[in-house]
Hints:
Layout: H1 22-47, H2 60-73, H3 77-81, H4 91-123, H5 130-151
Pfam families: UPF0220
Protein name: Transmembrane protein 50B
Main location: membrane
Amino acid sequence: MSGFLDNCNVPKCDCIELGERRNLVASIVSGVMFFTGWWMVIDAAAIYPDNDQFNHAYHTPGAISTLAFFVINSVSNGQVRGESYTTGCLGQTGARVWLFVGFLLAFGSLIAASWILFGFYVVEGFQPDWPGIAVFLQNALIFFSAMVFKFGRTEDLWG
């Protein structure tokens, strides 16, 4: 089954070629997504300050998702591949375990945010719906901003 897509050619779009600006664009897009996610949940917390409408414990997935953002992006792709990381705590295996823990945190917070949205605001019918939607969008945007920042840039961030 391996290699059955080797002969498929996807046309290359020359209008999106970023070249040297790839790191800049990935960092800006990631930052805007991260900011927008936190802005939505801060907006929901400001509009609904009562614990009955928006429980303050619902901020926990966003905090864990933010931690996952930093954990995922603290390991470079070269360290995971073993190209630039030869010494240190467990070497390449340690970098892979660290990245795996970051992805576990990110997926776990996204699952918790969807549980908050659907379990409390959709099924039980808490009104208003905006706090649940804001918590879910916050975690989704932080998750996707981590992916854009991790895989959307080249190895040399400042080059």
